[in-house]
């Protein structure tokens, strides 16, 4: 029995080892293909980068070819790059200054500008708040008045019903009339 399990373990370990070796060989072949592709792509990208990275001297030569006057300094750098611009609308990205001191002053000015705008509109807000409070008080007063009217009407109705009920019960004339009718019926029954 022990030899059976030993053979089973050996077979599974050999199968595992074969799977690992196959995956390693597949990965290594993929890596070599990627390297070959990237090296050919990097050669092309280097050529493209060289096309995009023109020196100031090249830019000046191109500008002179189009008829513009461009001045170079001793280090062969363009003195005034505005000379390269064409007439009309030349829109470029603004440069972002990332110094801590300018950031802190910007945040301070933003804070004070915001505070000033809040003060500017605070009177409007205050007036609007007063108007809302006044409207809410008027609304509450109207609600209270309608509740009081309803209560008063209901009390009046109850009193009227009670008076009618009491009036029916305690009417002496009605009692004497009822007694007379009773006596009349009793006489008829005796005759």
From TrEMBL:
Protein's name according to its UniProt entry: 14342_t:CDS:1
Biased composition (Basic and acidic residues): 49-59, 115-140, 147-158
Region (Disordered): 22-158
Signal sequence extent: none
Highest taxon in the source lineage: Eukaryota
Cross-referenced PANTHER family: NUCLEAR SPECKLE SPLICING REGULATORY PROTEIN 1 HOMOLOG
Lineage: Eukaryota, Fungi, Fungi incertae sedis, Mucoromycota, Glomeromycotina
